[in-house]
Design a protein that fits this description.
Elements: E1 20-23, E2 28-31, E3 37-42, H1 53-71, E4 75-82, H2 87-96, H3 100-117, E5 125-128, H4 129-145, E6 149-152, E7 155-158, H5 174-183, E8 200-204, E9 220-222, H6 224-235, E10 240-246, H7 250-265, E11 271-277, E12 280-282, E13 285-286, H8 297-302, H9 307-315, E14 323-324, H10 327-345, H11 353-364, H12 369-386, H13 393-405
Parallel strand pairs: 3-4, 3-10, 4-5, 10-11, 12-14
Antiparallel strand pairs: 1-2, 6-7, 7-8, 8-9, 12-13
């Protein structure tokens, strides 16, 4: 599966700062000091309806991570998956009388278009669950053979007791885990499971649903969590720098994935930091496909909204915050974009070197994009009030905003 084209990232003078970022597993800020190549895995979409503003906010957060690392003169090895076979996708296809594979390809193509328009830097590897199956099956077989997984009526489940570190990603107690498992794709009430929290690794073939050769597992399809584990281990290995996604993935997805990997390898932790973006609401409720209260990036673009304004609307909120999308949020972003473009179009301005350092410091401090935007606002307001004598300043600001914030002026 191919990703989308990369927009050019301007090179800036000087060098950025190491990233301090909130780690869900420890509950505090950690300073990441990757080697020459920073490694990040971000969980991708289930392509039955893409791309809403909640998606865009999540991928914007991890795009900023890449830009901070690139500014430190590191390379970035970014991997993202596509869950192109799963219950929600199959249910949507059946509801609408569509071929599930065609639906997945259609929505993935739309996602690529939206990511390109928003200037999100693409992953080096963009891997679908279906194409990862040959690598998933041996991992499930190994977990079963080592006693970390068991069969139940043809399905294969992971035993959470096999990982002594289970629970350290989310920090939740068993009761909270059970509730979230039921809400987020698990089956805690299925009779015969060793532990209600045990997640499925391999689902035996069901009538009328797609299935693949699973070797000694029989025909079926992979569970949700093992998909990302297989892809991450194959391309990044254990101990990569950031495992990222929306806050609703901390449990069960990232918790279970970490336990799968740790049981398989005997190493801990799977990732140095677990980083989660907040949820976006509309009309007082979390924006979600199940509720149908979605604002789509593609719809905004068709309505003539500049993608740079959409991106500024996302950047106006701290990535970990839960916030609400409103018409006013978008109007404010459109106005800000206009002010910034007017400022950099003038022939000169106040010196910009200090502004570049302010943006760098804000982003290195747990991706504080709102503080970075405020710094650019101040420079633009000063330029509008009193102009300046530095002929190169508008160009410096334009390149810095593009390189560090992903906004083309």
């Amino acid at each position: 599966m191919h990703a989308w084209p990369a927009s050019e990232v301007p090179a800036l003078p000087g060098q950025g700062r190491d990233l301090r970022i909130h780690d869900t597993a420890t509950g505090g800020l950690v300073t990441l000091d990757p080697g020459p190549v920073a490694r990040i895995y971000v969980c991708g979409i289930t392509p039955y309806d893409a791309t809403h503003i909640g998606h865009a906010a999540t991928y914007n957060a991890f795009d900023l991570v890449q830009r901070v690392w690139l500014d430190t003169k590191r390379q970035v090895h970014y991997v993202q998956n596509v869950t192109d076979v799963d219950d929600p996708l199959l249910e949507r296809a059946q509801r609408d009388g569509l071929d599930w594979a065609a639906l997945a390809e259609q929505e993935t193509a739309l996602f690529r278009e939206d990511m390109t328009a928003l200037r999100m830097l693409p992953p080096r590897e963009y891997i679908g669950a279906v194409e990862a199956i040959p690598g998933i099956v041996p991992l499930v077989e190994r977990l079963r053979d080592m006693g970390a997984a068991y069969e139940l009526e043809g399905d294969v489940y992971f035993s959470v007791e096999a990982d002594p570190h289970f629970g350290k990603v989310s920090g939740l107690d068993a009761a909270a885990m059970r509730l979230l498992s039921a809400e987020r794709g698990g089956d805690p009430d299925r009779p015969g499971k060793k532990n209600p929290l045990d997640p499925m690794l391999w689902m035996a073939a069901r009538e009328g649903e797609p299935s693949w050769d699973g070797g000694s597992l029989g025909r079926g399809r992979p569970g949700w969590h093992i998909e990302c584990v297989a892809i991450a281990l194959d391309h990044l290995g254990m101990g990569f720098d950031i495992q990222g996604g929306g806050s609703d993935l901390a449990f069960p997805h990232h918790e279970m994935g970490a336990s799968h990997a740790q049981a398989l390898t005997g190493e801990f932790p799977m990732a140095k930091a677990y980083v989660h973006a907040g949820m976006v609401a509309l009309d007082g409720e979390k924006m979600s496909k199940s509720k149908g209260n979605l604002v789509f990036v593609s719809t905004l673009r068709r309505d003539g909204v500049d993608p740079a304004a959409i991106r500024l609307a996302l950047l106006a909120h701290h990535y970990r915050a839960d916030w609400e999308w409103t018409d006013q949020v978008l109007q404010d972003a459109v106005a800000r974009l206009g002010r910034w473009r007017a400022a950099v179009s003038r022939p000169d301005g106040p010196p910009a070197e200090a502004l570049v350092e302010e943006i760098r410091e804000a982003l290195a401090n747990d991706l504080d994009a709102p503080a970075a935007l405020t710094a650019v606002d101040r420079w633009a307001a000063l330029q509008e009030r009193s102009g300046g004598t530095d002929e190169g300043a508008p160009g410096v600001v334009s390149r810095a905003v593009d390189a560090l914030l992903g906004v083309a002026l």
